[in-house]
Design a protein that fits this description.
Organism: Anaeromyxobacter paludicola
Shape: elongated
Low-confidence stretches: none
Distance between the termini: 35 Å
Order of helices and strands: HEEEHEEHEHHHHHHHHH
InterPro entries: ParB/Sulfiredoxin_sf (IPR036086)
Strand order of the largest sheet: 1-2-6-4-5-3
Biased composition (Basic residues): 1-20
Mean pLDDT: 85
Protein name: Chromosome partitioning protein ParB
Region (Disordered): 1-36, 304-326
Number of strands: 6
Length: 326
């Protein structure tokens, strides 16, 4: 089947996608070379050389015209951001085997400088593979603005995140930022945190690693929002909301066990129970508040009578099994 083409404007350009507001620079390819780097880039270049690295080029990226350095950095001075997801050994193995076969490393990481060392927000697996192979240097696009390190979810081009990985990374970022910039408000970090449900789920995953967060994310998307509070206060509220979600999960798990005791064994049981008590499926207009909704659903789950559920009800519910993200 042929790929669906995007609608175009009169000028022949594809129409902007919903939510995209970027107006790119008018820089042509030759304009991206920086013959005279700005002072902040020159200072960063001197720091790179002092750290034992080498600046290979200075340029502007084509969308916003932001200045960058293309560098070779000592591999021992580069590390993943401290709030990044854990490295997948299977993915690192895949990368090392590919690099071993091709004898090439062609994908520069993104990096920011921090106290004589370098953080990469989206090159953890490539960096780990290079270190395992014994490389002494890594190629990096060095960004002067440190805040880019927190835009990890938007910038990540490596192994796709699952929900658990995304949520845990978001929580680590929130904690790091709360320590560095406690006056920042959570609602100011919409780009970095991606969606408010991830923050609540992240704190829940910390308490229950095998939580079936995918069963609750659609509900949270409707009733959870970014908080206007300063980050330290927002963290406390997120912990409280996570506890509410976990209490609901306890009730759902209890209902699933009661159904199993009546001989029902289906991978869809948890999804079925959640759908059975979720009023948002039929609700138009403004949904109830976070606490009101979860309190109502928890009561309904606790009163769920397995004697009134037939196996064909579960079969008809369909949908994906609510498995835990491991």
């Amino acid at each position: 089947m042929a790929a669906k083409r995007r609608p175009v404007t009169k000028s022949g350009r594809p129409r902007a996608r919903k939510g995209v507001k970027l107006s790119p620079t008018e820089l042509a390819a030759p304009d991206l070379r920086l013959a005279d780097p700005p002072p902040e880039l020159e200072a960063l270049s001197r720091e790179v050389e002092g750290d034992g690295g080498a600046v290979l080029a200075a340029y502007r990226e084509p969308l916003g015209g932001h200045p960058l350095l293309f560098c070779a950095l000592p591999v021992e001075k580069v590390e993943r951001t401290p709030f990044q997801r854990d490295v997948s050994d299977a993915h690192v193995r895949k990368l090392t085997l590919a690099m071993d076969r091709t004898r090439r490393y062609l994908d520069p990481i993104i990096a920011v400088r921090e106290g004589g060392r370098y953080w990469t927000p989206n090159g953890g697996h490539r960096l780990t593979a290079l270190k395992e192979l014994g490389a002494r240097a890594v190629l990096a696009l060095l960004v002067p603005e440190r805040r880019v390190a927190y835009q990890i979810l938007a910038l990540n081009i490596e192994k796709a995140h699952n929900l658990r990985e995304k949520a845990l990374e978001v929580v680590r970022m929130v904690r790091d930022l709360a320590g560095r910039e406690p006056e920042r408000k959570e609602e100011e970090l919409a780009l970095e945190l991606e969606e408010p449900a991830l923050v609540t789920l992240g704190f829940a995953y910390e308490e229950r690693g095998r939580l079936s967060g995918g069963a609750y994310q659609p509900i949270l998307k409707r009733v959870d929002g970014f908080l206007p509070s300063r980050l330290p206060e927002a963290i406390e509220e997120r912990r409280r909301r996570a506890a509410v979600v976990l209490a609901f999960d306890d009730a759902v798990t209890g209902a699933v066990e009661r159904l199993k005791e009546r001989g029902m064994s289906s991978p869809y049981l948890k999804a079925f129970v959640v759908a059975r008590v979720n009023p948002l499926r039929f609700m138009k207009g403004e949904p109830p508040g976070f606490d009101a909704l979860f309190e109502s659903m928890t009561r309904k789950v606790e009163k769920l009578d397995p004697g009134k559920i037939r196996p064909e009800d579960v079969a008809r519910s369909g949908g994906a099994p609510a498995e835990a993200e491991v």
